[in-house]
């Protein structure tokens, strides 16, 4: 097994080969929000709930240190933008693969907003990151979203396109939106070739809605989840993480998993 394979095992559950990831990289884009103030408590909660990895920007890692208990994989997010300016969809690299290694990261991630006017620059940057990841044996997760004028973010054809494009760029894991039904998402998974995990999207109305989406994505062949605010802003962070983990890692039904809420 090469370095990428060894590091990938640190952010997944080896037995099913699936991922329960929790992004906590929202602070740069939207500022301090509920669930991302006491970082250590939130990381403790998702770890205890069975998550296999968390995403963070480099400056927040030191505020999230766990002094005891089970370890959890660290994915350092390399790209960023803010909602303060007019170009929130334009992601730029704010650090490097080499710096991620120095921070002890097990993987890195970048975001590409396909269809945005700055898409060529984001593609170029992602290609360079992929080259560096191959050089250093570092897994790369690409967060792939259709954007641009008149683009519907949950269009299955567009999601299938950006998922495959990300794999072609060198992603070891692709994160994309769930398409809304099992059949269309199965098309996304089949076409991507790389493992696909679903994003959580906007805050959902009920916990059962979240669990149903997670269950259906796994039924379609998905490799897991990468859900942020629907986890860290939940009234029971550890409980929702455990329920999601049971579905992803142990093939629980929605009803069985709901008992942990």
Strand line-up of the largest beta sheet = 1-2-3-6-7-8-9-10
Protein structure class: alpha/beta
Rounded to the nearest angstrom, the radius of gyration is 17 Å
The count of helical stretches stands at: 11
Share of residues in strands:
15-25%
Largest sheet: 8 strands, parallel, barrel
Mean pLDDT: 94
What coarse outline follows from CA principal-axis ratios?
Answer: globular
Number of beta-strand segments: 10
N to C succession of SSEs: HEHHEEEEHEHEHEHEHEHHH
Helix content range of the residues, please?
A: 40-55%
* Low-pLDDT regions: none
Distance between the termini: 38 Å
Topology:
Elements: H1 3-9, E1 19-23, H2 27-30, H3 39-48, E2 53-56, E3 73-77, E4 79-80, E5 92-93, H4 97-102, E6 107-114, H5 119-136, E7 140-146, H6 156-169, E8 173-176, H7 182-192, E9 196-199, H8 207-219, E10 224-226, H9 229-232, H10 237-250, H11 254-258
Parallel strand pairs: 1-2, 1-10, 2-3, 3-6, 6-7, 7-8, 8-9, 9-10
Antiparallel strand pairs: 4-5
Helix pairs in contact: 3-10, 6-7, 8-10
Structure description:
The protein is an alpha/beta fold. Helix content is 41%, strand content 17%. The protein has eleven helices and ten strands. The chain has helices spanning 3-9, 27-30, 39-48, 97-102, 119-136, 156-169, 182-192, 207-219, 229-232, 237-250, 254-258, and strands at residues 19-23, 53-56, 73-77, 79-80, 92-93, 107-114, 140-146, 173-176, 196-199, 224-226. The strands form two sheets. Strands 1-2-3-6-7-8-9-10 form an eight-stranded parallel barrel, surrounded by seven helices. The chain has a two-stranded antiparallel ribbon with strand order 4-5. α6 (156-169) links the parallel β7 (140-146) and β8. The model has no long low-confidence stretch (mean pLDDT 94).
């Amino acid at each position: 097994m090469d370095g990428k394979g060894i590091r990938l095992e640190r952010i997944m559950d080896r037995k099913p080969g699936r991922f329960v990831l929790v992004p906590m990289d929202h602070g740069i884009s939207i500022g301090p929000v509920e669930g991302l103030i006491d970082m250590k408590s939130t990381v403790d909660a998702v770890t205890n709930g069975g998550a296999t990895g968390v995403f963070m920007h480099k400056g927040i890692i030191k505020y999230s240190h766990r002094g005891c208990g089970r370890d959890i994989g660290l994915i350092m997010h390399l790209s960023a933008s803010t909602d303060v300016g007019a170009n929130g969809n334009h992601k730029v690299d704010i650090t490097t693969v080499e710096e991620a290694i120095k921070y002890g990261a097990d993987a890195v991630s970048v975001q590409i907003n396909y269809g945005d006017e700055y898409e060529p620059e984001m593609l170029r940057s992602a290609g360079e990151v992929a080259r560096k990841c191959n050089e250093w044996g570092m897994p790369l997760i690409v967060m792939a979203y259709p954007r641009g004028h008149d683009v519907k973010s949950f269009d299955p054809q567009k999601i299938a396109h950006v998922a495959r494009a990300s794999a072609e760029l060198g992603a070891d894991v692709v994160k994309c939106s769930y398409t809304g039904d099992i059949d269309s998402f199965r098309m996304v998974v089949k076409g991507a070739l790389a493992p696909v995990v679903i994003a959580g999207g906007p805050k959902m109305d009920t916990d059962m809605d979240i669990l149903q989406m997670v269950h259906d994505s796994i039924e379609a062949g998905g490799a897991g989840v990468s859900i942020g605010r629907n986890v860290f802003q939940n009234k029971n962070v550890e409980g929702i993480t455990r329920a999601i983990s049971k579905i992803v890692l142990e093939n629980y039904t929605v009803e069985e998993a709901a008992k942990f809420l």
